[in-house]
Amino acid sequence: MGFTQAVKTCLSKYVTFSGRAARSEFWWFALFVYGGGLLLGLLDLALFGQTTTVTTETSAAVSSQTQFAPFSSVFGLLVVLPYISVTVRRLHDTDRSGWWYWLALIPLIGIIVLIVWLASKGTPGRNRFGEDPFGAVAPPN
Questions:
Q1: pLDDT tens-digit readout, 82-95
Q2: Region of residue 87 (phi > 0: left; psi between -120 and 50: alpha; otherwise: beta)
Q3: Strand residue runs (E) in the chain
């Protein structure tokens, strides 16, 4: 599956948490999400800049920075559900429950384990979550 087809598939399965997703579908969509967020973040920065406010009410100065980021924020809101759903379907392809997605909340180790699982080859043939995305048949025992 190529980049365009993966993005179309993930967006058409906006909140479909059942079934399986191939590695290519997941990673192409991840590239779309992170690449799009980066490019739109740079566009936000170029168009709206960054505001720094320094307040000196006492002897200590307080500095805060804010950035108006409408394009990257809207993009992030639009792709968060399809990204979670394709991640759950990818975990299903490795014969793991989608609830393992919550492993990402464990700093560093959880994310590393999740990335390894998402990058691993899916189970061949049918598993408890559905048919193989490639239509492969499981090898005989």
A1: 999 999 999 999 99
A2: alpha
A3: 51-55, 62-66
| Sequence ranges of the domains in the chain | 3-119
Which has the closest alpha carbon to 69: 50, 95, 94?
50
pLDDT in tens, 57-77: 666 666 666 678 899 999 999
User: What letter would DSSP give residue 50?
Assistant: -
Backbone angles phi, psi at 62, to 5 degrees: -115, 125
For residue 66, the SS3 value is strand
Using CA atoms, how far apart are residues 48 and 88, in angstroms rounded to an integer? 35
The per-residue pLDDT for 58 is: 65
Angle between helices 3-12 and 23-48 (to 10 degrees): 90
Distance between CA atoms of residues 16 and 18, nearest Å: 6
**Cβ count within 10 A of residue 11:** 14
CA angle 7, 31, 86 (to 5 degrees): 55
CB 118 within 8 A of CB 26: yes
Q: In whole angstroms, give the CA distance from residue 18 to residue 31.
A: 22
